[in-house]
Specification:
single chain; 509 residues; mainly alpha; 18 helices; 77% helix; 0% strand; globular; MATE_fam; Protein DETOXIFICATION; antiporter activity
Length: 509
């Protein structure tokens, strides 16, 4: 089992950390943990430390990438089968996945990501007993949010018509959205569980469950949607069942006793400090939602173009591929978030900074490789998603833009992962508003409609917003005082109910 070699991943498990003087929020009074790496003294030292960090990072990232790809592929495979059911079915599934479920996914993932900061830093500091309490607080908040989002699913048809989608697409997508309500509550349970397990580096079990769900999902999607001819009804049944299976399997693993002091049962402590927890969850939600919704807007804007059905289908295919590749980057996002939060919680600022450097270099190289493969096979891969000649040609024309977007999007989530690990969500939310919605969206609309560049123009403008946001995050991270961030992490742990005495006995062995 992966957990058998967990000491590689958790600084508080791999070394005895001596108690340090109390730190405040200034670097001048902060003293790093005794096992932090020394300052880099040369090229050979740099590569040696990078190699050591790469082993820790990729142990997490490889499994995170696999898990993220499997989970994302549930909806993506449904879209693939829907494309073989019919053009309208593909448009309905694409719009529901991108707009209705995409909106909800962004909210839930964002609010759940507060646990990446809290659980990651608490685990790094040895405060294992707080992890289960944090997860339960997140369940309360996310399920309450799901009750509010329920109205979005119920009135999906009217909402889609209101924002300009065609009558046919709105009706089909609205019906499909109502059938997908169980998935909404599965999101509310799944994301806190995922962050709880990730913070402890218990990734292997998540990968196994995700793989099993993907295999079953593929088989039953083919059987119900194509073989038995259930169409969209079959898509809803299988997609809901797949997410419920993931939640049930992960929760069964947690309560089986494998998480030690991290799960000691349900606790009334989950109802304490709820408002403060809500504020951090909302900051996380705003930050990530602004990113998720940004490319969701591409599908919406395509619906206003001439020949909207072809534009929506072609763009949904590109976004589908972009989503798959982004899952690779999100795997690294999770890994670097865990590494940064664990190391900051353990008072290892230089290790946290090194984890960032290794993650950015790795993600950039992966993005270049995927982009090259798409360019080489641009005449072939559209056949996997559609039988419509027009749709396939538009996808082929968009491939160079898609390749550039993949390269850029492989770096940006890593920087966001560092922001989550360090607890910068609120500030990054303002950055996203400015770069995405004040700059990127208006530029895309001007190029797409004013200059009649269509889908290409819309996408070019929005990629420009992503590029600006990436540059801003680079600047923020470059100027970061990592000693100060480690000191802030200690204060955060204290604030949320943990204690700050660092000792080997505090860590689950």
């Amino acid at each position: 089992m992966a957990e058998a070699i967990e000491p590689l991943l958790s600084p508080t498990q791999e070394e005895h950390i001596q108690p340090q003087p109390k730190a405040d929020n200034t670097s001048s009074t902060f003293i790093a943990g005794s096992q932090d790496i020394p300052p880099i003294a040369g090229v050979c030292h740099f590569f040696r430390e990078c190699f050591a960090e790469s082993k820790k990072l990729w142990y997490l990232a490889g499994r995170c990438m696999f898990t993220s790809i499997c989970n994302y592929s549930l909806g993506a495979i449904t879209q693939v089968f829907a494309g073989h059911v019919g053009t309208l079915a593909l448009a309905a599934v694409s719009v529901e996945n991108s707009v209705i479920a995409g909106f909800s996914f962004g909210v839930m993932l964002g609010m759940g990501s507060a646990l990446e900061t809290l659980c990651g830093q608490a685990f790094g500091a040895g405060q294992i007993d707080m992890l289960g309490v944090y997860m339960q607080r997140s369940w309360i908040i996310l399920n309450s949010t799901a009750l509010v989002l329920l109205f979005l699913y119920i009135f999906a048809e009217q909402i889609l018509k209101l924002i300009g989608q065609t009558e046919e697409i709105s009706k089909a997508a609205g019906t499909f959205a109502i059938w997908m309500i169980p998935q909404l509550f599965a999101y509310a349970m799944n994301f806190p569980i995922a962050k709880f397990l990730q913070s402890q580096s218990k990734i292997m079990v998540m990968a196994v469950i995700a793989a099993a769900a993907l295999v079953l999902h593929t088989v039953f999607s083919w059987l119900l949607m194509l073989r038995l001819g259930w169409g969209l009804v079959g898509a809803a049944v299988v997609l809901n069942a797949s997410w419920i299976f993931i939640v049930a399997a992960q929760f069964s693993y947690i309560i089986s006793g494998t998480c030690g002091r991290a799960w000691t049962g349900f606790s009334w402590k989950a109802f304490q400090n709820l408002w403060g927890f809500v504020r951090l969850s909302l900051a996380s939600a705003v930050m990530l939602c602004l990113e998720v919704w940004y490319f969701m807007a591409l599908i919406l804007f395509a619906g206003y173009l001439k020949n909207a059905e072809v534009s929506v289908d072609a763009l949904s295919i590109c976004c589908n591929i972009l989503g798959w590749t982004t899952m690779v980057a999100l795997g690294m996002n999770v890994a670097v978030s865990v590494r940064v939060s664990n190391e900051l919680g353990a008072r290892h600022p230089r290790k946290a900074k090194l984890a960032l450097v290794v993650a950015v270099i790795s993600s950039f190289m992966i993005g270049l490789g995927i982009a090259a493969i798409l360019i080489i096979f641009r005449d072939k891969y559209p056949d996997l998603f559609s039988t419509n000649t027009q749709v396939k040609q538009v996808v082929k024309d968009l491939t160079p833009l898609l390749a550039f977007c993949i390269t850029l999007n492989n770096v940006q989530p890593v920087l966001s992962g560092v922001a989550v690990g360090a607890g910068w969500q609120a500030f990054v939310a303002y950055v996203n508003i400015g770069c995405y919605y004040i700059f990127g969206v208006p530029l895309g609309l001007i190029l797409g409609f004013k200059f009649d560049m269509g889908v290409k123009g819309i996408w070019c403008g929005m990629i420009s917003g992503t590029a600006v946001q990436t540059c801003v995050l680079f600047g923020m991270i470059y100027k970061t005082n990592w000693n100060k961030e480690a000191s802030i992490a200690e204060d955060r742990i204290k604030k949320w109910g943990g204690h700050t005495e660092f000792s080997e006995g505090n860590v689950e062995q």
